[in-house]
Amino acid sequence: MGIRFRRRIKLAPGLHLNISGSGLSLSAGPRGASVTFGGRRGTHMNAGIPGSGLYTRGRIDTPNRSPRADYATSNGDNDTVSMPVKISVEDDGAVIFRDQDDRILDDALVRRVKQVAKDDVVGLMESACKQINGHIEALETIHHATPSPSMRAAHELRPYEEPEPSKPTLPKYGILDRFFSSRRARLTQQIAEAEATYNDNVRNWNRRRQEHESRELARKAVFEKKVLTDVAAMEIVLEESLMDIIWPRETIVSAEIRDSGRLVMI
To answer: How far is residue 83's CA from residue 80's CA, in Å, rounded to a whole number?
Structure first.
């Protein structure tokens, strides 16, 4: 009989790229790689993990090559056309070749794309793979970095990032405003409305700032105090700690904390 834990966590994936002697393969992960062929600036390869800051770009055609890609037209003559091609990696690891309008290429064009840039694409991707796979390999030894149970966790309060509303530049009374009461009344009304709007914006900003600070203080209490005795707080800390890990693909983790926190089952 299997064990079913109470808590299930879905962890977002990263991108895992594999290089082998037979060519480039991309396995499991979100869309994170693209190749653009043709165009005035030549053919380039882009690879990255969304949200990670890891990104690489390099030119994969030779400088003396014509900027027109070597794709034969369908009429069978010797003319060539320049054709932008995007290579995307689906969540299940499938590699999809699309044109600039996001239409999937036929098999003949896919084979031609692989022939044109195979070696250069592989060479460029190897450097990205070393960095990406390094994160994946780190999962094998993640337990080595587990902090000591005696170490007290500390939660740093995050500052409120929304800037305070700026004071408006109010119009000034001119000579005509001083002589004509109707002009002076309109300008007075404009100034009053601008000041009222500014005051409302400041009040709302202060309310949002106070709500943020209250949430941060509550989180600090969870991470530094309640986690020592409250099982619900322990589950929150465990979940957020697991979500901070860079995972190679979407991962479902089931966990349960028992015996008042003395036993954690994952």
So the answer is: 9
